[in-house]
Structure formats: structure tokens, C-alpha cells
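Hi team,

As requested, here is the filled-out complex form for the 1-deoxynojirimycin run. I kept the field names the same as last time so the parser does not choke. Let me know if anything looks off before we queue the next batch.

— J.
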Amino acid sequence: MRKKMVAASALALAAGAVVVGAPLAARQAKTAAQPWMNTRMSAEQRADLLLRAMTLEEKAGQVSQQFMFGAFEQFAPIVKGSKVGSLLFVTDPAVINRLQRVAVEETRLKVPLIFGYDVIHGFRTIFPVPIANAASWDPAGVERAQAVAAAEARAVGIHWAFAPMVDIARDPRWGRIVEGAGEDPFLGSAMARAQVKGFQGPAIGAPGHIVSGPKHFAGYAAAEGGRDYDSVYISEPQLYNVILPPFAAAVQAGAGNVMSAYMDLNDVPAVGNKWLLTDVLRDQMGFDGWVVSDANGTKNQVIQHFARDEADAAVRSIDAGNDMEMSFGPAASAETLAASVRAGKLKEAVLDRAVRRILIGKFRMGLFENPYVDEAQAKKTLADPAHRAEAQAAAERSFVLLKNEGGALPLVAGAHKRVAVIGAMANSKRDMLGPWAFQYDLPETVTVFEGVRDRLGSAATVETAPGVQLKRDVPSMFEAITIPGAAKPEPRWDAARAASEFDRAVALARRSDLIILTLGEAEDMSGEGASRSDLKLPGDQLRLFEAMLATGKPVRVVTMSGRPLELGAVIERAPAILHAWYGGTRGGTAIARTLFGDVNPGGKLPVTWPRSVGQVPIYYAHNTTHAPKDQGKRYWDIPSTPQFPFGYGLSYTTFEIGAPVLDTATMGAGGRVVVSVPVANRGTRAGDEVVQLYVHQRSGRASRPVRELKGFERVSLRAGEQRTARFELDERSLQYWSSAAKGWVIDPGTFDLYVGASSSAEAYATFSVAGLPRPGVSWSGRKK
Ligand code: NOJ
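And here is what came back:
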């Protein structure tokens, strides 16, 4: 009772401080008397002051975010009524400024909006899809890429990216594997860190940068059956050792936001999961930003049979630690939270906690001082040619050479006078961009055909034909909605033309002396809502491949997809395969330069490539168990080994990685092991090798994976050049979360160490850990 009175009087005070009739309120707003505008105070102090002035309704609006699929006129009253604290999917700087003007000039407290967007792998300049960026094994390059994306997004007035997606994905049926860094927590953590730094710059609020929101917290990629949004069951050790590390890395890199996941995690929706959002994210990882739900994630708790109704859903997510609700249409929070507080169903202090976190983010971003964007400058920033050059370099570093028999690649420009670039994606601009791009410029996007044509110039005649067309049986989710500002993809030809298009491609191949054949998936075959039950080449592509081989002309294959595909016959029969993912705005140029040897591919698979979908999930860091003599025979019909191991990728040159040299044979308490690895380019071309270091614990409190990545470095070497890569292992490299100990541990004993050019690395050493057991270290590096 007493508490209620205090809350009520605080409320009266807050309301009374400003709302005393419209004219006075307006006057007070003009006098800049708002104490929270004092920039000498910290973001936290300013947020506290502002919070005290807010009504319950304003607070409920502040924690609400809406998709802006509609006109300014439709959203202006929502902003004016303080029904939202944030909007997403507005990308026109003029509209952003108009909306912001409503928030800053026409609302009682003048709290600016924060604009969010899916800046996933570029904004206007599209970079390779995230899984391709991860295949570069080049965190510094990935950081630069996201810095460009941030600069472009910030230029139009976007303050916040719903990225990076740091979900560890071990099931390529799941379409969103394209959006992450693949299967490994160590590589995933490096990519998470790099992306957060790229987006945010030196600190939240740095000019030209935006807030980064790693997602989807947590476990989303483990959807049962690879079916997007399905429930997830993950053991605690798997959560701590595999799923959470990239989130911890992102938090340690200073991520200002985190997005909670859609699905049930061990029967509790992530958005309403207090253990996950409060105990783990806040208390264990030390996250101090705000958490946003995924789209309609809060309301979905009703569909998940967790919440009674939308009001209950809004209470439960905010109570769990989900601060902002992303919503199609009015958010349940805006509609119901004030009443829930008044009815005693939610403590006002809990609502305040969420509002405060959001306001701190806005203060840190400098939105109160600089709410508007320079519309003229936006155009210039989006047109910056340096951004295109960076995207091309990123694409060139992302390609993975899967096969190269007898040096079939690189091609020699001019050696073939008639070149055919064939395949459904050979001349498709939209397919070059990948599934999570909306603000691209289609005309400037370079296809494989255009890249090859431009590269060869007068040295050859280059022609193209699709041969086949790729189409999903079910329309993609993005076909159903109009994304403001998104260009329309090229129309597909109708089915009646299928036979003649196929024949046209064969005829073109016959009169050419080289065939560059693209195979894979159309861009909308991976991404959100784009799971598959099988990994075969869709459509009539295998027949096209056979028809190309049957011409007797040399065939070089470029595969494009956002996931590993079952390529069986292609791998057996094509002399060379370059996996090019979706390379972005300059993808075609980068592919052509790679095919013709201007650049040497140095990307490595960030995900194990299965032989067949039946092997899924298949990942290198698996535990082992007793087996019949031949470990390879876990299935009687196919080998149980993958098609290509994690970390695999060829080069046009040959590298030699020597035996690892350790500075000590024993790691004691607080100690380190420094590992030196000689690497030499024994070929005749410059190239990049990714030196990889894996560790295996022989015995301990838990069975541990056969090997785990604990270090890597992408090394560029001239022909004949030699270098030493250095890695440092410390306590954190060896700790793991033990279900027996219910916490982080390091087990004493013997460890195996492997170095090489993939997870099949063979160069070997051992070391031991002594002077332990001792407590491990926590996420934040604090002793536990
Ligand atoms: C749903 C997706 O799951 C999420 O990744 C995305 O950021 C939001 N929609 C906003 O578009």
C-alpha cells in the first residue's frame, strides 16, 4: 500500500512537473529548462532525470518500436502521441527528419526517436553475405566492411543495426545460416567482435557509426529439423560452450543492444526468459545496453501458449529483461503496460528499468543534441566509390576454391576467344546480392557475366544464357511485403520458355571454347523463412551441368549459395569449383578477377560441408565415442566424413605449414603457451593461407570435442616467402562450462594441439596443464 502511494505521488510529481495545461507545457518546452539536456552530466544521470518527468503512458510508448510500412501521415500521429520510442524500416533521410521533427518539436518531452534497420551486410553498397565474410577469416576486413555499412546507414539517419547475427549454425537446412559466421564459436566470436567494432566505432555515438545489436539471443539456429522459428532444446553445456560465446564477445566489444530470439528455448520463449535475459546476459556477461524483441516476438508468446494474452505477454517480456518490443502495428507494450502497472501486474520500477536503458542508449548516441540528418550529405556518402572498392576487396577475400584439378584455374585471359557464361544466376543482378539486402542499387550491381565480359574486354567474345530458372515452390516472405525503397528484382521468364532456354544455353556452349557455369541457389532460397529439407541443387541445374560437360568444352564451375549444398556429381566431374556465395555489389568483378588469377582465392569454409543432408547436423567439433574399427563407417551407405571439412579451401599456390613449436610444455596457473608455426609459400604466385590452431583435451570432468579452433591468422605471402605465425593460449582458451561443476572449469591433464590449413590439420604437439584444478574465468574475464 505504502509503495503504491509513493509510486503514485512520484507519478503526480513527474506529470505535474510539465503538464499543467497546454500553453504552459509548450512554454516550458521552449525554455530549454529540461534538466536532462545538460550535456555535462552522464548519460545515466540524464536518463534518470528524464525518466522522472515521464508519465506511465510515455514510458510504455518509449519501450515500443514499430515497423514503418506506411506513409509519414500514418505514423506522424503515432509519434506525436508518444506511442513509440523507435521506428524501423524507414530509410529515406527526408522522412526520417520529418518524423524526428515531430518527436523533438511536437511531443511534450521532446524525446528523439531512434531509427533501426536491418543493416546486415551493407546498406547501399552491398558486401558479401555474412557467411561469406566469415569465410574470409579476416576480422579486420569484416570490421572495415561494417564500418562502411554503418557510415552509409548513419548518413540517411539510421542509428542502429539489427546485426550482427551471431547465431552458431550447424544445420544448413536452416535458411538463416547465410546470415551468420557458421558453425564455430571461436571464429564466430572473432567475427562478432569485429562487426560490433565496425558498426559502433571507438564508442557508441562516434560520428558516422551506429549502435550494433547482436542477435538472436539465444539458440535460434538450433531449430528442430532446421525449420525456421521452431523450438530449440539445448543443454546448458552446449549453450555456454557453443551458442553463447559469440554473444559474450559482442558484449565485451561494447554492443549497445541485443535482440532476443523468437523461439522457445528449452520450453521458455527467449523473449520471456528471465534466466537468459537477466541471469546470463546481464549478471554473467555484464551487458548494459537495451534488449529488443524480434518482430512481434513479445506478442508471439501468446501463440507459443506461454502468455495468456498480449497484456500478459508485454508484462512477461519486460519482467524477463526484454526492454523494447518490436512490433508490426501497435505494440502490446504501448497499448497495455500503463494499465498493467496501475493494476499492480507490473512494478513500475521494472518498466523504469527498461525505459532507462533505452534512454541511456539515446543519450549515448547523441540524439538529443543531434536528432537530424544532413540530407545532402547522405547522397554523397552513399555514392562514395571507396565503399564499392572495399566491397570488391571483401568479396575477393571471401571466395573458397573447393576444387582445382590440374590447375584448371586460374584461366588465362585471351586463351579462349569465345566464352559462355551460363546458369540461372550467371547474369542475375539480384541474385548476386543475397537475401538480406534491400537498399541496393541494382544497375550498378555486377553479375558474373558482366564481370567476365569487362575483364576480358576485346580479348574475347563473352555471351550469356540462363539455361534454367530457379524458383521456390512457395513465395518468399519478402515477396509479400513492400520494403520501402527496395528495388524490384528482375522478372522471371515463364515456364513455357524452359525448353527453349535450355537449348539456347547448350547451343551457346557448343559454339564457345570455354564455359563458365554458375550453379547453386537463387538468393531467396536462403535467409529468413527459407529453410529446406534437402540440400540438392534446385531446379534443372544438374541436367544443365551434364549438358555442359557433354559439349566437350572446358567447364569451370562457380557455385553461389548461402549454405553448403549437396554437390556430389559436380564435385566428382567438374575440374574446378569456386564457391562464391553471394558477393554483393561488386561480386561479378571479384569473381572474374579471381577466375583469371588477378587475385588468388584464400577463403576457407566457416562451416562443415556435408556429402548429404542425412549427415546433418555435422560439425568438426563433435565429441567422439567408441566405434567399430573403422571410424569412417557410422553409416553403411555413405562415409560419415564430410565432403569438405571446416576450415577448408584451396589456393592457386601451395603452402607448407610446419610443425608447431611451443615455448613451454606445461601451462601452470595463470600461465600461457606461445605457439609458433612456420608457414611458407612454396608456389609461384602470391597468396593467402589461413593458419589454424586446434586443441583437444584428452580427459577431464567432461568429454570434450575431438578438436576445437583456438587460434587463426590469415597470412599473405609472396611466392617463396616464409613467415612464422604466433598464437597464444591462456586459461580462457582452455576453459569450458561443465555441467558437473555447474560453472567454468579448466581441467589439468594432457592437451593435443594441431596446426594446419583446415580442421583436418595434422602438424601436432602436446602440452599439459598443471597446478590446477582452479576456478575458471567468467565471460567478462572476472575470476569466478
Ligand atoms: C525478423 C528477423 O528475425 C530479425 O533478424 C530482423 O532483424 C527483424 N525481423 C527486423 O526486420
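Two things worth flagging: Residues 118, 162, 215, 294-295, 528 surround 1-deoxynojirimycin (CB under 6 Å). Residues 18 and 25 are 6 Å apart (CA to CA).

Thanks,
J.
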